[in-house]
Amino acid sequence: MFSQEEIIFDAAKAFRKAFEATALPLRTLTFESFPAGACGDTSDLLGIYLSETLGISPMYFWGTDGEQSHAWLQHDGLIIDITADQFAGNQSIIVTRDSPFHLRFKIEGQRNAEITGFFAANLRHDYQLLKDFANNNFCSAAIEK
Q1: I need a labelling partner for 125 at 20 to 30 A (CA). Which of 52, 73, 133, 135 fits?
Q2: If you ran DSSP here, which 8-state letter would residue 82 be given?
C-alpha cells in the first residue's frame, strides 16, 4: 500500500518527465526555458492533471521573496512543486510537508488550478500532450512497483 504522498510524487514525476521530453511540440512560450519562468503555467497544468488522475483538488499558491516570485501547489498540507529547481539548490520534484524553500515566500494568494487567459488555447493543447505522455509514464511506474 502506497501513501498519498508517494502516489502524488509518482504522478508529479511523470508530469515532470513529460516536460523534459524534447519531442513534444509544446506551444506555450513560458515552457521554452523550462523550468525557468514556467512555474505558474506548470502549476496550473499539474494541478489539473492531479485532479483528473488522482481525484484530488490541489490549490495553486503564489508568493514573493523580494524581487523573486514563485508558484506551486498544495494539497492537505503537502507542498507539490516540479519547478523549484529553477532556483539554485532545489530538487526538480518536491512533494513534502516541510519545505524551507517555500517558507521564504510571502504568500500573495491561492486559487484553484485552471487554464485561462490569452494563451488558454496553447495551454489546453500543451496539457493534452503532457497528460498523454505523463499517463504512459505514471502507469508504467505504478506497474513497476
Answers
A1: 73
A2: S
